[in-house]
Amino acid sequence: MRLDKFLAQSSVGKRKEVRNYIKEGKVKVDGKVVLIPSLEINEKLDVIQYLDEVVAYTDKVYYMFNKPGGYITAKKDMIHKTVFDFLNDIDIDGLFHVGRLDKDTEGLLLFTNDGEFEHKLMHPTKHVEKTYFFWALGELSEEDMKILEEGVYIKKGTMLTEPAKIKVEKYGLYKDLKDEIHTIINYHDQPVVSGYLTISEGCKHQVKRMLKSVGCHVVYLKRTSIGKLNLDESLEKGEYRLLREIEVESLLENL
């Protein structure tokens, strides 16, 4: 096994982080400092140390979490509550979030101690699809949807998004749909639209910026799926469960 893969799967850090640790001379193999992340090791026989502490090869765990709005996707924050505040009855040592969701975004978030798993799902070259349900102020015409599906510029004309998929669910006036929308709006005659947007990237605020590019302002956002894994709707907001083996396999299929 590669040294960087061993460290990532042993909860020392994410793949990019452990590569830096190795290059900085913080890792030893059988008592000798090594600087090559791709070094092949025998995970059963070699003694691996990080900062002079022996690294034990740990069992990998994977959790699905239904994130509520209002929480930061981070382990610690000096001001705001974080998603880790919900993980009270499990050992979070070595656990980290896979990707992130904005503070006000709800829905599917994964936790793991497997750095290789995180790398495969989140690396931009893998193009793993992620689907979001949204409510937005504004309207989406057939032309708008075509533009979103073909890719839009979301950063001063310098960044074109990958082709996306969009499906409109409902549209009309806020006053007629307010019971279904999670946000209070002062203008009752404001047109609103809901739907699902599927993207294969993870740029900052991407869904909001894409919809803004065609004149829509997102007021509610929820991630419903990553790859073939759908959010378990039996989970209340703030609840989590272990992923089943078949669910982990479906996420990693063809990656």
From TrEMBL:
Pfam families: PseudoU_synth_2, S4
Keywords of the record: Isomerase, RNA-binding
Record-listed E.C. numbers: 5.4.99.-
Gene Ontology process terms (BP): enzyme-directed rRNA pseudouridine synthesis
Alphabetical list of PROSITE patterns matching this protein: PSI_RSU (PS01149), S4 (PS50889)
CDD domains recorded: S4
Single GO MF annotation: rRNA pseudouridine synthase activity
Broad EC category: isomerase
Keyword Chaperone: no
All residue ranges annotated as the RNA-binding S4 domain in the record: 1-59
SMART domains (alphabetical): S4 (SM00363)
Xref: PANTHER family: PSEUDOURIDINE SYNTHASE, PSEUDOURIDINE SYNTHASE FAMILY PROTEIN-RELATED
NCBIfam families found in the cross-reference section: pseudouridine synthase
Homology family: Belongs to the pseudouridine synthase RsuA family.
This protein's name: Pseudouridine synthase
Organism: Clostridium fallax
Taxonomy of the source species: Bacteria, Bacillati, Bacillota, Clostridia, Eubacteriales
